[in-house]
Amino acid sequence: PAKPDPPYVVAAKQRNKVPFWAAPVLALLVPWAYLYYNSVQPPPAGANDPLVIGQTVFQGNCAGCHGPTGGGGTGPKLADGEVLKTFKDPLAMVHWIAFGAADGARPNGTYGDVNRPGGAHNTSTFSATMPPWRASLTPDEIAAVTMYVREGLSGAKPDDPTEKAFNPTVFDTLGAIVTKVIALGPGGDPKLATVKP
Prior knowledge:
Elements: H1 7-14, H2 22-39, H3 50-66, H4 82-86, H5 90-104, E1 110-111, E2 121-122, H6 139-153, H7 171-183
Antiparallel strand pairs: 1-2
Helix pairs in contact: 3-6, 5-6, 6-7
């Protein structure tokens, strides 16, 4: 007489079989998972990314005085939150970049937030003088370098309430805002409330 099948063989013979259509579905899961994974990844930074533009502008124009990573030099330190203490409002920083020390400081030579820990910066503290950039940089470049210094070097978060109106997601509108800030003219305390986005 034939030997009876072991219990695991009996169980396998009684189990429902995989339907014929399931094999292609299972095979398609692998490429679908690959496509899905790649579709939810952030896109690589490109030439039109404001932070890439800002980094290019910074390296070409600002790094000589502020250091390649914003660590300071003949100009003040910008990294590690320093620029956020000096300019709580990104538009104040835009004004400073546009007008520089000659037209952007107060009559006593101070600039930035007067309530800054350690007091406002003074133009006489550093050997280099901040030049005005409104003639040599476009409004978009000024916006981009402001974002790069604040987010890339100083650690600002784009979703912070102060930064929300001035971050890469609204970059296409910032050139007009920068133009309005420049239109306020020189002076250490520009009326930025009139140009709030």
